[in-house]
Amino acid sequence: MHRIEAANGLPLALFRARFLPAYLAPIAANEPSLHSHRIQFESSSTISADDFNSCFNIIANSSANAYAASSVGWSPSKKRKEMKLPDLRYLLFVNPSAQEKRTRVEGFLSFMLTYEDGHEVVYCYELHLAPSLQGQGLGKHLMNLMEQAGSNVGVEKSMLTVFVENEAAVQFYNRLGYTEDEYSPEPRKMRNGRVKMPTYVILSKSLQEWSTDDEGEQDG
Q1: What's the rounded Cα separation, in Å, for the pair 196 and 177?
Q2: Alpha-carbon dihedral angle through residues 154, 157, 162, 168, given to the nearest 10 degrees
Q3: pTM over 0.85
Q4: What's the rounded Cα separation, in Å, for the pair 163 and 207?
């Protein structure tokens, strides 16, 4: 069995133990009030309805307009279906002291071990944090956990898609070492001579040289 299929077939707890050894490391956020928060690991089949809806609402509130303005378009039903893909996994940033379960997820990253153009990759589907959590090193922490999982499985690279208009996100990923992937869409020349620029870019980062030395820099 190939390693992608083997890893995706593991129960959640075994996947975590085998590929995310730093999962329970303390979250060294810059803001002391966040030290009580924790990261919860789930799959598309184990995530609770409340947490799933919280993740969907975070996406809708932060990105629905960007989707609608892009060539991808915004469809709540299609996004919910995508979020339930069998091999999708979630790193939830949870506030355990939240008054209501449906508001306890304040950010998350979803990813999948898969194939892209014949390459074994770990693909980041979504990364979202509440505005109050941004700039605390949490996004970098979640990305490092995902990259660590991919590296431990043995995939070639980490990939993601980001809207071109989201300059802050593009710059964030660039700082983490992501560059435009060779399979990112190219500008298209129309029949009238006008050049149509893509609304999104595919970024990637090699994991071949990823090492545990990066763990100490996760929350910088």
Answers
A1: 27
A2: 100
A3: yes
A4: 23
